[in-house]
Amino acid sequence: MRVVLPPSFAVWRYIMASNVSATSGKGIAEKAKEVAGLVKGKPYVWGGKSVSSGFDCSGYVGFVFCGLFSNRINDFSLNASGFSTSTLFKDVDDPVSGDIIYFSPEGTLPGHVGIVYNADMWVGSQSSTGVAFVNFTNPFWGKRSRKIRRLIESSPASVSAGLGSLMVRVC
């Protein structure tokens, strides 16, 4: 069932999720792809956390996770370094769909976060592109120090609860 609120409820967005199997990583990756499609062509916005205005890196990642785990909105309202230290995630060696990729700050470059889409690409909001898919071998990002983190408490049931017609609060 799809609920429609009057326009005065501007902090709420309704998103139709893709018809995806409810495996944890694939569900997260497909939600990331869906949200990327909604903001195609919109620029990076420092502090941005919404489809209407655009995203910064952590705003995009948080929005994707809030869309799948709407009962845990505060858990995913983090900045980039918050995703790197959150106890909701564990460090892993090999990236799989739905993992978080975190780039450590280096020199004048700030920390950065995105979502692993598949074995070849991750998706995030970059200042140069807005939300975009990036190849792991990208000349800029491929050289940066990174760590991969996986959501600990993602079960097929918890992810599937966020799939279908759902109401997503903008974090």
Describe the structure.
The chain is α+β, with helices and mostly antiparallel strands. 22% of the residues lie in helices and 26% in strands. It has four helices and ten strands, in the order βαββααββββββαβ. The strands form three sheets. It has a six-stranded antiparallel β-sheet with strand order 4-9-5-6-7-8. Strands 1-10 form a two-stranded antiparallel sheet. β7 and β8 form a beta hairpin. α1 crosses α2. The two termini are 23 Å apart. The N terminus and C terminus are likely disordered.
Q: Kindly report the spatial arrangement of strands forming the biggest sheet.
A: 4-9-5-6-7-8
The main pleated sheet reads as: 6 strands, antiparallel
Radius of gyration of CA atoms, rounded to a whole number: 15 Å
Number of helices: 4
> Level of helix content?
10-25%
* Classification by helices and strands: alpha+beta
The sequence of SSEs as H and E is: EHEEHHEEEEEEHE
Q: What spatial form do the alpha-carbon principal axes imply?
A: globular
Average of pLDDT: 79
List the uncertain runs: 1-23, 155-171
The rounded distance between the terminal residues' Cα atoms is 23 Å
- Count of β-strands: 10
Strand portion, in percent?
Answer: 25-35%
